[in-house]
Here is the input.
Amino acid sequence: MTDQRTSPADSALWPAPSAPGRIEATVTVPGSKSVTNRALVLAALSSEPGWLRRPLRSRDTLLMAGALRTMGVQIEETVSSASSAVAHHGEHPAGGRPGGEAWRVIPTTLRGPATVDVGNAGTVMRFLPPLAALAEGPIRFDGDPRSYERPLHGVIDALRTLGARVEDEGRGALPMTVHGNGSLAGGPVEIDASSSSQFVSALLLSGPGFNQGVEVRHTGRTLPSMPHIRMTVDMLRAAGAQVDAPEDGGAPNVWRVTPGALLGRDLTIEPDLSNAQPFLAAALVTGGRVTVPDWPEHTTQPGDALREIFTAMGGSCVLDERGLTFTGSGRIHGIDIDLGEVGELTPGIAAVAALAEGESVLRGVGHLRLHETDRLAALVKEINGLGGDVTETEDGLRIRPRALHGGVFHTYDDHRLATAGAVLGLAVEGVEVENVATTYKTLPDFPQMWDEMLGLPAAAGAGAGTRAGERA
Here is the structure.
């Protein structure tokens, strides 16, 4: 596996193309990062081999797969060459969704010593320490410089309560070492997951492997990104785990996972609906029409909320056998909305709101200050740097309409900032996005897909690229 520690650091400026008119396109979005990485963890814990079909191949998922391999899990893959993911109105996507890729995961006894590179992937740095507690031997976790600033205390403190030995020199953050002895007692634990719902998901995912299972009680005032916890619960149940959740009539903010063997699954990964956001936004911004094939009728992905949010901002959508078709009206309305459950959508919504006719207030997303970067401060600085009027509130952003101009849009190595800059560039000439290659974290071919959606020839060296030579 290629070392992901510094990839894809790149300070080059990408001229975000302006829309030549109303966009009419069909855009095939790759698999969900959130589903892919959860599926990898569950497959590693299973009692038999399983398959992941149409997994996302990106920096975060390659880091997860590489980490599991380091701990002894076998991952075999078949890969077919991907064709164009974008077609224009009246056409079909060339080759459709990449359908030939599949990963076979063969679980085994997890062993150290090993060193895991988490990059800056929240799912890797939080989901794997509980798994490492089940390994025989020490597992060290390290990552990008930004990863040292991201909170891990919820997982570290919980693992100690459940019987694990963790060395972090009191930081509550990376780097750290989990000293496993092949099993973990498990049982009840209280955590404050106000800064990240991944703390809850991390413990639930490995819970079936703990001797007593796990009972997780969230004690904080707020709990962001609930759809991701529901996703974890649904995927555990699909793998054969017994899970009791608050929505089943249990106590609020308490989840229980019973110990037991997990089944090997043959799972086809849904498209990543959050990564569909910039393409749907393009329809809204240009008054055009974009179809995303294979949009699931029922899903726990936070990105499904885009149907309602972007409709409220001036568009309309239809979900049928072709997928989701979103149509812009040519006008963009401001919005007042609590995004606490779908915080990862905030950068893209903020970009659209900066182009709206009225004021927008985005609430419930104070936890974004602890994401890949401080997303709230970054959005204020970068949109205002283009002439916008954005102010930071206690738990979000207030965005007032103002004419924008070109300039450099910095991304801080944050993939959501990069795609937000691209959305602004559709309506504002002269926007240059710094390090668009950071989209490789979750959407490897973004620059090419963006150019194809606009009917432009793909620029050589535009950014992320396919990196077909890398292994899962």
Q: What stands out?
A: Residues 33-268 form a domain with the UDP-n-acetylglucosamine1-carboxyvinyl-transferase; Chain fold (CATH 3.65.10.10). The radius of gyration is 21 Å. The longest strand covers residues 136-142.
